[in-house]
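REQUEST FORM: STRUCTURE PREDICTION
Request ID: SP-0412
Submitted by: Lab K.M.
Chain count: 1
Length (residues): 246
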Amino acid sequence: MKKIILVLMMAGTLYNPVNAQVNFDSSSDFDLAKSIASQDVDLPSPQIEKVHSDSDAGSCEGSPLTMKLRGRTVTLPAKGLWTLESHLATKEDSFSRGSSFPRTVRENISAHLNKACARLTQLVPQADCGDVYDTKWAKEWTPAEGGKAGQGAVPKRPSKDEEMWIFNMMWAGKAMPKAGTKFLATYNGKSVVVVGGYERGPSSRHFLGGFQREVLWALGATEDSSKITLSTLKDQSVPPGPITCN
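STATUS: Completed
RESULT:
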């Protein structure tokens, strides 16, 4: 089995962590099907293109998987349009009165983004965080929708390293994967290990799902217009973030 070559831009022995500050205020293989309850029925959507999986992709190898979304069923790997999602509060974030979640969509978002920027520049030293977090929605917590601002579809909060690479789909009921399950997003020759199971949406069938801003940036994709492919990932030990698959 071929191995994933992690994208390393600087040698570890020479690397000095970047303390970036930006003002943002204005497992080995497993049976993925066991974590997703779905029906083996393929009802393609006009906005989704089925693609062939690469059986010789080493640790990037996946297998076809049918997932039941609200009002439709999708079989991975699949290609479609993806929208931009706002941020989720992480285990490392802190808020007033010891709360696990912010009171507003802006509370302490600057501290969250500074941590994300520092981590991103470790992975990709040439990253310009002003370009990464370049829209209003990339500088806010996800709004309260039946819960609290910054809260996903489950009470469990992701780690800061997971949150940057989160994706979501409008999974139907128990079809939502277990929080932390990893998938593979690919676009224009680039690949990113993404994390699912924390959030659900969007409701519009125009989109296959949604990505955090860091995912779209790492793929070189444009929100709402780039057709990105999502695949399963058998090797769940791979860390989230940009990778090169051989």
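NOTES: The chain has one domain: 37-245.
Reviewed by: T.R.
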